[in-house]
Each structure stands twice: as structure tokens, then as C-alpha cells.
Automatic annotation (TrEMBL):
Signal peptide: none annotated. Residues 17-173 form the Uracil-DNA glycosylase-like domain. It comes from the Bacteria. The keyword rRNA-binding does not apply. It comes from Microbispora hainanensis. This is G/U mismatch-specific DNA glycosylase. The lineage of its organism: Bacteria, Bacillati, Actinomycetota, Actinomycetes, Streptosporangiales. NCBIfam families: PRK10201.1. One of its GO terms (molecular function) is hydrolase activity, acting on glycosyl bonds.
Amino acid sequence: MAPTKADLEAAQNATIDDVLGPGLDVLFCGINPGLYSAATGHHFARPGNRFWPALHLSGLVPRRLAPSEQHLLPSYGLGITNIVARATARADELTPDELREGGARLERLVAEVRPRVLAIAGVSAYRVAFARPAARIGPQEETVGGAALWVLPNPSGLNAHWRLEAIAAEMARLRPPA
């Protein structure tokens, strides 16, 4: 059942637990939870968000998972976190200080969890969080917490200039070598 307007209002500043496990190949990182995600407790849950369809099309999971199945991700070597934990209606409600603090927290988390790759979905937030104003989508030269770093397009339906197939193609580049 979809969250009500009251559920969404109550989700302001709420958090969602990270989805983590041992031996992750890829730790996906969103900017922060939207109100719909916070209300449901599931990452990338808003209808129209292309994370879950792109994840399947990328070949990283064998079928399209629903947001409520996020607990299955570690069995595929995948996890999810966010730069900033608190939910907002829009990512532009976050301050630059929050993004920088989130980047520092993310570095500590990655050093602890030790995924092979950290994949941040949202180049604009990445630029602020890590003081990389010229960063582009794709692999980055630096590492975060010892993990290789990749910046992905934001899968939000609001990011209209990235088609689903193109987001999936970027995700596919994250697959570990056979």
C-alpha cells in the first residue's frame, strides 16, 4: 500500500537502515532517502525511480527486485547506503555541510565494510560531498575508504536526461570480472 500524505509528512528527517553484508562487490550510495522511501523503509522506493529496473537490466541481479526485497541484495554481493541519512522531499534541501559530513561518514563506513566498489548515484551530490567540482559519471581516479569509486547517474525519475537503458549500462560496468 502506498504511503498516505500523513505518512510522507511524518517521514521528514527519518532514516532508513543501510543494507550491508560481508564481502560486497558493490555498495550503492544514494544522495539521501526521499520521503516515500523513508515512509516505506525501503531504498529507491518511489514509483518512477529507475534504480531497481536498471539494477536488473545491468545483469547485477537475475530478476527485477522490488524495493521491499532490498534485504536480498547482500546475497548478490550488493548493498545500499546514502551520503546523508535524513529523509527530505528533495535532495536540494540538503546543505553543503550535510553533504560534506555525509562524505566523511561514508568514507568511514566503506573502510569498515570494505566493498570492492563504491557506486555513488548522483554526480552533483558527489561533487559537493567530496570537493570534486569537475567530477563526471564513470570511474574516478581516487578511492573512498579503500574502495574503487564509480559515480552513476541519479536514478530518480526527475533525472530525465538519463534514460533507463543508459543508467543500466553504467551499472553493468560495475560487474566484477569473471
